[in-house]
Amino acid sequence: ENDIEAGKDSDVSPEDVSEKDEHFVHPSERFEMDQQATITLFQTQTISTPSHFSPPIPFMAILYSFLFIFPIYIIAQLYSSSMMEERTNRKCQLLLAAPLRSIDIVLGKTAPYIITLMLLVIIISTFIQQPSTIREVTTVFSMALIMLPVILLFMALSFIAAIFSRSFKELTFSMVFLSVIVSGYLFFPAMFANIHAVSAISPMTLIVNLVEGNQIDVNTYLFSTVPFYLVSLSLYGLGTSIFNEENLFSQKNLISKSLDSIEKFLEFPGGSVFTLSLVSIPFIYMLQLMFIIILFNLPLPYSILIMIFLSAFVEELAKSIGILTIIKKKLEHINLKKATLLSILAGTGFFVGEKLISV
């Protein structure tokens, strides 16, 4: 207060100060600067921050949601490194020789990591909510349920990266690349929570809404999380199909192992290019949503044209990958008639899957 009074009574004004004295601060301005310096990150501030933008960005809620992702990054890295070490040191060779199915081995190795992450998510949710009522306790478990598909996706990507990589160097690159892509998918839409419809595609938007005290319905939960569940299960299925000595201890490249996994799928009872198109839809769906996020800020009509081109490209690629596998692996004798029939089946599978999603 004395500083303010001194500033009012003083005959010195900023205009009277010599231009050479660049460090001069008027007493009234110094008081405001001192007040701002005492404000911490988690206190309400009077200066412009993202929370003061119009429309407001849920800055604090997004900051809290980051707390869920850091443990997932670390555990996923440990999980993939463990799988890779067992491959390089041939530690899992005894397990493969045991009377166990590949799915049993994969589940046994994966379950502890998922359980650990779920416990960490519940602890973090409890820290954020500090529940004292039944509703707040329900919110804690709702957060855990929302994060479950995110955990499954990170674990599935880590598993696939560990199976497909030929060295720790490739594994590190794959994990960093996949983590960046998934993080962008999760957090960029969440920045527009309650502002734009694009935010609904990310489970982190649901976390932001819960942190802000809003409620979510079942349809919103399913819309955000079902693609994560389906992609995770598909990745684990494809990875488990080649969880054998031939692929684990070989130096096959990414394309060869991908074709091997698709070959196993086609040889499985009920496997065909029709069902492969159905299985590929969640992947294409998430890729197209990612394209929307990436092209969100591009001006019209360029964003629409690029979006149409990229969407058509990935769809046709997904339809043709089964036919390519049949040709490369010589699963069937291919002529023009057979290729046309397979193309029709692949296209029909994709068409049926799209209609099921729209329903």
TrEMBL record:
Q: Region labeled Disordered — which residues?
A: 1-21
Q: Where is the composition biased (Basic and acidic residues)?
A: 1-11
- Span-the-membrane segments of this chain are 57-80, 110-128, 140-164, 176-201, 221-243, 273-296, 302-327, 339-357
Q: Which domain of life is it from?
A: Archaea
Keywords linked to the UniProt accession:
Membrane, Transmembrane, Transmembrane helix
* Name of the protein this chain belongs to: ABC transporter
Supply the source organism for this entry: Methanosalsum natronophilum
